[in-house]
Amino acid sequence: MPVMRSRVRRVEVVEPIAKRTRRRRAAAEAGLATPKTNDKEQKTDNERVGVGGAVKEEEENRALEVAKEKKGVLGEKKQMDLLDSGGKSKKKPLAGCGDDEGTASPVPDQVQVEDSPVYRVERKLGKGGFGQVYVGRRVSAVNTNDKSGAGAVEVALKFEHRSSKGCNYGPPHEWQVYDTLGGSHGVPLVHYKGQQGDYYVMVMDMLGPSLWDVWNNNINSNLMSTEMVACIAVEAISILEKMHLRGYVHGDVKPENFLLGIPGTPDEKKIFLVDLGLATRWQDSSTGLHVEYDQKPDVFRGTVRYASVHAHLGRTGSRRDDLESLAYTLIFLLRENKGFVVCKKKMAITSEALCCFCPQPFKQFVEYVANLKFDEEPNYAKCISLFDGEIGTNPDMRPLNTEGAQKVGHKRGHLTMEEEDDEQPKKKVRMGMPATQWISVYNARRPMKQRYHYNVADARLGQHIEKGNEDGLFVSSVASYQNLWAIIMDASTNYSAQVYELSPYFLRKEWIMEHWENNYYISAIAGANNGSSLVVMSKGTSYMQQSYKVSDSFPYKWINKKWKEGFYVTAMATSGSKWGVVMSRGAGFAKQVVELDFLYPSEGIHRRWDSGYRITATAATWDQAAFVLSVPKRKPTDETQETLRTSAFPGTHVKEKWAKNLYIASMCYGRTTLAEISL
Question: Where is this region: Disordered (predicted)?
Fold first, then answer.
C-alpha cells in the first residue's frame, strides 16, 4: 500500500499561531464552521466545500444523492433493463409523461370536441409516455361504412390529462407537430382536437397492429422474413425523409410506433409512424438553419432499446438519430432472440457483431447512419437503394406497400455505396475499435520551461517534485497509468507554494480540508486503479472557493447545480470506475460545457472548438471519457489547442509540440477509439 507523503516548498511562509487563532475566531463569528477532523474513510458519494481560510461541509440528503448518482448520467444496465422489461420498451421522456392512472380522473364515457360527432369511448388500445389511446365509436346516426377519415364509424381517441407536465402551458406539444406533419406520407390525420373535462383529446384515424404486435405474434419463432423487414426499411426511410423535410425529427422510432393499416382495407399493407410526443425541430422555424449542437448528459429522450448512441449521451436530436433508431429496429425485427443490445453494449459493439445474423445491406445501413455527423443531411435514396436486392421486383407481390420509397427512387435515381465516386473517403465518427490510450491536450504558450516524468513509482514521486521545485517548477498536471504516475511541471504557473499528498484513498477529505484551512486550493488530481490518489494543492491560484465530489458515475447533475452557483470545473480524475470532480469559484471562465462519451468525442470537441471553447480538464475510465471545455473571460493571444491519442506515453510527441510552442495542459489515460477511414 502506498505510503502517505506530504511536501511543502521550503520558501513557504508559515502563518504565526496568534494570527491564525485571530483569523479562526473571526471566521467563527462570521458563521463559518471550523472543520472537525476524523479518521473515518471517505464515503463514495460526497461533496466538500472550502471557503477561504475556513471549511464548510455540505450535508445533503444522502439517500437521494446516492440514488441520483448511482442511476448515473448514462444509466445503469439494471435500470435500463427495467425500461425494457418484457421486450417492450417503456418511454423515458424528458418532459412529463401521460397521466398517472392511479390518481388522474377517469376518461369520459363520451367525447365531442370542436364540431366532431359524438363518440362513445370503448376499449383501451394502449398507453404511452404521452397519454392513453382508446377506440371511439360514432354515436350519431350515420349511413356510412367508412373505416377512415372524418366520417369513420371507428376512430382512435388519444387522451392526455391537463395535469401532465407536457400540458403545463396548454395543449400538448404533440398537437403542434401534427398540425405540421399530419397527413404527410406515413403520418395519420388528426380530424378533431380539443379539451373535454380534464383531458386534451385528439380524434385520429384508426389503424391496425404495430410491427411489435406482428413480430410478437409471429408463430415462426418471432422471425420476420428478410423481404418483409427490407420493405419496412425502405418505407420507413421514406416516411422519415418526408418528416425531416418539414423540419422535425420523430425522436422515438421503434416497432411499437410503426402501425399497419386496418386489415381488410386498401391500407392494410401500408405502414404509419405515430406518437409524435417526443418530436422536436432539427431546423429552426424562423431562420431555416440547423439547431445548435449541445450535450446534456443527464437528459435522455426516447426508448432505451432503440435510442441512438447520441440520445443516450444527451446530445441534441437530429436526423441521424431517427435513422440510427430505425437501424436498431430493423435488426431487432430480424433477430429471433428478444434480448437485444442496450445502452453501453450498444455504444461499444461493432457493426459486425451487431449484424452477425443479418444480410449485408443491414450492416451497411448501420455503418452509414452511425457515422453521420450532427448536421449532415442523410442520403435517403442511397439508404433505400441498399435494400433493392432483398425486395422482389414486382411491387404488387411485396409483403408491404413501398409506394413512398418507389417515388424517392424515381425522383432521385438509385445509388449504391460504391457508385458515389465524387465522395471523398470520410473519417468514421463512431465505428472505430474501442481502445484505452493516453489522451494529452496541448495549448499554445509563450516559450517556457516544462518538464515531464512518467511511469513514476510511489517511492520516487517526492524526489522528482522536489527537484522541480528547486529549479523553479511547480506541478501543473498529473495522471496515472497502471498504478504509476505521470507528472507535468511548469515554470509559468504563478503559484507561490505547493503541497501534495499520495494517499491510499481517493481524494482523502481530511487532508484536503486541512489545507483549505491554510488557503491552499486543489490544482491537480489523479487517481490510480488500486484506489490511491495524488492530490496537489497550491497557493497563488485565482480561486476563491472550492467544492469537490467523488461519485460512482460521472456527476453531471451536481456539476450543473454548481454551475448555477458560480463554480466551474477546474480538475478531474478517476480511480477505477469512480469519478472525482473539483469545482472552483474565481476560475476565470465565462462559460463551460461537458463532452462525455463511451468513445473519443471527436465531433463534439471540434464543434466546441469552433464555438470558442477550449479543453480545460480531462479524465477517463476504462469505458468512458470526459472533457470539460471552457470559454475564458480573457481571450488568449493564441487560441491554438491540439489533442493527441497514443498507446504509449507521448514523450517523443511532447518534444515535437514544444518545438511549436505547444505545451501540455492536461492529460489522462482511459477510453478512446482507434480511428478508421471508410473506403
Answer: 17-109, 403-429
CATH number for 185: 3.30.200.20
How many domains in the chain? 3
User: Which residues lie closer than 8 Å to 87 by C-beta, 6 or more apart?
Assistant: 216, 338
Pairing of the two strands 484-490 and 474-481: antiparallel
- How far is residue 271 CA from its own chain's centroid? 30
Nearest partner of 324 among 306, 342, 343, judged by Cα: 306
> How many of the other CB atoms lie within 10 Å of CB of 286?
5
539 among annotated binding-site residues? no
> How much is the pLDDT for 457?
96
**Measured between alpha carbons, how far is 189 from 149 in angstroms, rounded to an integer?**
8
* Statement to judge: residues 508 and 543 lie in one domain: yes
Quick check: 143 and 211 in contact, CB under 8 A? Answer: no
Q: Which secondary structure element, helix H or strand E, spans residue 176, and what is its range? A: helix 173-181
Statement to judge: residues 253 and 390 lie in one domain: yes
Examine the domain organization and report whether 184 and 231 are in the same domain: no
252 catalytic? Reply is: yes
Q: Is there a contact between 107 and 124 (Cβ–Cβ < 8 Å)?
A: no
Q: Looking at 205, 252, 321, 490, which residue is catalytic?
A: 252
Q: Which of 204, 230, 257 is the last residue of a domain?
A: 204
Percent of residues, the chain, with pLDDT higher than 70: 75
Give a yes or no: residue 88 inside a domain.
Answer: no
* Strands, E assignment, 261-330: 271-273, 280-281
pLDDT for the residue numbered 553: 93
Range of the domain at 536: 434-674
**Whole-model pTM?**
0.80
Q: What is the tens place of the pLDDT at every residue in 649-678?
A: 999 999 999 999 999 999 999 988 654 433
Strand partners, 671: 436
Q: Which residues pair with 452 in a beta bridge?
A: 488
Question: Is 398 domain-assigned?
Answer: yes
Mark which of 178, 204, 230 sits at the end of a domain: 204
CA neighbor of 270 nearest in space, from 333, 225, 181, 205: 205
Q: Is 17 within a domain? A: no
Q: What is the pLDDT of residues 188-240, one digit of tens each?
A: 999 999 999 999 999 999 999 999 998 888 755 556 889 999 999 999 999 99
The cell numbers describing 405, all together, are 420509397
User: 284 to each of 281, 455, 523, how far by Cα in Å?
Assistant: 7, 51, 42
